[in-house]
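Q: What would this chain look like folded?
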Amino acid sequence: MIRRTAIVLLLVAVTAAAAQTKPAELRTYETRYYVIHTDLGRDGAREAELRLTRMAQEYRRRTTDFSGEIRKKFPFYLFRNEADYHAAGGTPNTAGEYNPNAQTLMAFAGDDGPNLATWYTVQHEGFHQFADQVIGKQLPIWANEGLAEYFGEALFTGDGFVAGVVPPWRLKRVQATIEAEKFAPLGEVVSLSHKQWNARISTTNYDQVWSLVHFLVHADDGARRDGLVALLKDPNSAVEQHLGNVDDLETKWRTYWSQLPEDPTADVYAEATLRTLTSFLARATARRQQFASFDEFVAAAEKGQLKMAESDWLPPSLLSDALKRTAGFRKEGDRFSLELDAPRPPKISYRSKGGTELAGRFTLKGSRMGDVSIERPVASP
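A: My prediction, written as structure tokens:
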């Protein structure tokens, strides 16, 4: 599975004048939700355009019960060099940040261009920008940071995001922290002000609010999700009003995380991988490229021979990452197959060694791809 060096992200205010500095060499790209300013090459800019469009749509889709409408485009600055990021107002020792004074999102990619750590930072800080401008400024800091971490961990698939990921390395860290009793009492954490949060920023605190949000969204088949939504719709209300006694909640949260298996979201990674492969298959099929088997499709993908229309471009690194995960799944005994299903387009089927079954589907609109979806078998009554 993907491993990422932990990044401690600081939400700090820099001067509006500095953050709004736009060096002459930056090119500007106006997209559906963002105005992107960057000195990256065209492919780097295209990836940013694509990811940020899907990112805003994921924020909105997942927060529709307590957020507003996106009514204006968000400014985003993406620099190749860290020095340029700092010169434009980026705070030292950060990979990216949201400046609430200028309402500006900023990040730097490094000389090799954006990588997964870059996009994690953008997804995290981008949520702060979205929350500030679409949800409102009263969002509790624990929820703001917890949701930012939740979206930071989401996996981009080319045509969307898959959220709810628990990286095994991060699970181990959370479980070790619980065992060592180093997390603060939950009642204390959910009562922190923004100022108090900034005064005690640590990896442990980010782990705690991320794990709390994940628990509230996913534990017990989402039984607390409505309570979380109700709380976020009325952020001045007490946590107990919507989620019950905080001490009881803390006990259940600790138990949930302590009992998770070592790779609890393997199926989520599989779904993200399948969605990505299906996105590339859809584009190739739209260009009348055919494959007799899944292995033939993979061989063409590994050689860079998959076709796609310029208007449906996806970054090659996305396919490369998906192929690596696919190889790992197959090594563990999971199976992929490409199945012809005329008159419908072909599909990619996945079956884990544990019996999970998924099918990647897509639609076509003439010579353009339409939607990508995942089908799950309907359980027998």
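Residues 1-22 have pLDDT under 50 and may be disordered.
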